[in-house]
Each structure stands twice: as C-alpha cells, then as structure tokens.
C-alpha cells in the first residue's frame, strides 16, 4: 500500500504534467518522490518550457485532492494501483500509453483475469441489447471477465449479462470514482460492486464528464482485454475507437453483423471489411479465445410459441418492419395483427421501435 508521502508524490506528478512527460521523468528518477529531487538541468531536458513552469508550482487543488484520496482509500474496497506495482496488469502494461495510476473500487484481482471487452452503441436496437446480454452471459460462463464502459446501451447490457451469469465484470469509466456517469446506471454500478465486480478509472476524484476523457477510457478497456467484441456501432462511434486500439495492441476484434438497412450495423460491417472476425454466436468467439477453466453454456433456445405467433415471428425476420409491411406479408387484418404484436411485445419476443416499427428479439 502506498505511504501518504508516496501517494502525495504520485498525485502531484500526475496532476502537474501529462502522461508522456511523467513517464520520461520517472525513467530518469526511478520514483515520483525522486522526480521532485531532480536537478534543474535534468528537468529542462525532460520538459518543454510551459510544462517546466507548471511543474515548479504544485497545483492549487493538490492538497485538497490528497486529503480526498486518503479519505477515499480508507473505505472498504477502495484502492489505488500505480505503474510498477507487482500486480499491474501485464496486458495493459504492454500498451503504448499505460496509465500511471488507476483508482479501483471492488476486486483488484480481476485485473489479472482472462477478459473480453464488449462495447457498442449507447442507443442499440432491442436486438442489439439482447445480443450484448446473451454474448456476455455465455462468455462469462466460459470463464472470461467481461469488460465494458458502464455507458447506456450495449455497455450496460454487457455488464448485466455477465452479472446474470454470476460471472465477473469490470467497468472502466471516464470520470472520477466519486461519481457515477450516467446517473441512470447508479443501480447497475451498485449491483456490479455487490456481486464482486470492479470499477476502474485513471482519472482523479472529482474529475467531471468531459468528451476528451472517453477515448482515454476506451484505450484502457482495449488494453485490459484479450479481445474486443463490437455488438452494434454507427460508423462514427467511440466503439470503433476501442476496436482500433485493440487492433493496435494486437488483440482479437470481433463484430456481429446486422441489417444492411440499420445505421447501427454499419460500424460492425466496416470492421468486418477491415478484417474483424464475423461472429454469430459465442462459440465463434471461443474458437479464438478458448474457455479457460470455466464452462460454456449455449444460449438457450426460445420457449415454445403458439403456431400463429411463430408464423408471425418468421414473417418479421430480424430487421425492423412496419405494420403495413407485416400486413402485406401475413395477409392478416390490421386489428388482428395489432393484437398479436401486442401479445408478443408483452412476452418480450418483439420490441416496438420509433416510427411504429417492430423488431423480433432473440430469446435467451
């Protein structure tokens, strides 16, 4: 455990200069405390003038941050990990920009377990959410820790799937750990911690929501994982940044294909064209990442459906479809079709989308 003096030195270093400059200084001095004893000539060599000036003056908020950090890590389950710790995750250490300091809440040991990232749209289709849960559930049962970003949509569904399987999951976030973003996922964060999961951030307590933090969060997700599964993503998507970072660090990238008419599928299709492995089941992922001491449980088949409803589901396919298109396919009167769709919606077998569209949901 870091001593108060060591903690203060780490915080001053990370709050005074950027990560690249901090690593240069650490390479020269060997420890954060020794950094602040370097001669002026060495500092002039390592830092450009503006950073040199900032380095000379401790940040105004530093004393308050040190006090908050000491109080925070005194709470059960709270911890800090620094670059150079014996249990610093080797996969993350091997990346081009490993974080100097990680704030941890939950099970620290999960950082060393076999893991897979599952990422995707914040606004997935109903099928996309179902797919994220089903893949996370199966892969967690196979022995993999599921890593995602605690965002709405696919991230939340991935964490939920792992928890439903009583598996392990890690959330990497882009704010300080004294807050949960988005607030709608506060209950999910509490459930994750109660189930023995882990929440990770490289950002100090009090760090607010800023757009620039999320690409940095994504590189940690990619760096901790052995592979990255993209469930749904638009062409301009943070999930594709995570996938690109995974490729750059030599990790496997997987993508689930979707409808050619869905904007949420275009990012996955682009990844597949660029060499990501097309996957249709968790077994496709496990071919590249074999089960590691766990057991693989296939996604259960849908329960038996009445013949008329099954015929309607088959007519729907899995792409979003309008009521008029279904009437043309089935030949059913509008009133009868509306009743059947409502029954299927209440059973959780279809979802009602914006624009009076309907979509079949994979069960499991």
TrEMBL record:
Domain Smf/DprA SLOG intervals: 81-289
Span of domain DprA winged helix: 298-356
NCBIfam families for the chain: dprA (TIGR00732)
Family named by the database record: Belongs to the DprA/Smf family.
PANTHER family, sorted: PROTEIN SMF
Record's protein name: DNA-processing protein DprA
Organism: Pelomonas parva
